[in-house]
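Weekly structure sync, notes
Attendees: PL (lead), two postdocs, one rotation student
Agenda item 3: pending single-chain targets
PL asked that the sequence for the first pending target be pasted directly into the notes so everyone works from the same version. It is reproduced below exactly as submitted, 97 residues in total.
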Amino acid sequence: MRLARWLAPSIASPQHAMTRPDCSLRTALDAHGVNGTLRRVLDRFVAGVVVDSHAETSANYVAVLLRSFALAAALWSLRTPYAPQFSAQSVYKALAR
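Predicted structure, written out during the meeting:
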């Protein structure tokens, strides 16, 4: 819930992350009380994505990055399970109409 409180405004509006005061990811997560297993998983994930094992990356940048991942995951879950049936030929025919 604490992570959601920190991340929700940036998911709703990426401009929010660009306009709020910035600090390191570590400082932001500490300030919002994000800890435990969720914190360890998030720290490791972000460290692998931005190559920063000390969580010194901009918290605003990470918020926008996590927003992108969350939106991609949401869109991926909406995809049609039979997407491979659409071949390049069917796309060509649809565009030709």
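Discussion points:
- The longest helix spans residues 59-77.
- The two ends are 49 Å apart (CA to CA).
Action: rotation student to compare against the earlier draft before next sync.
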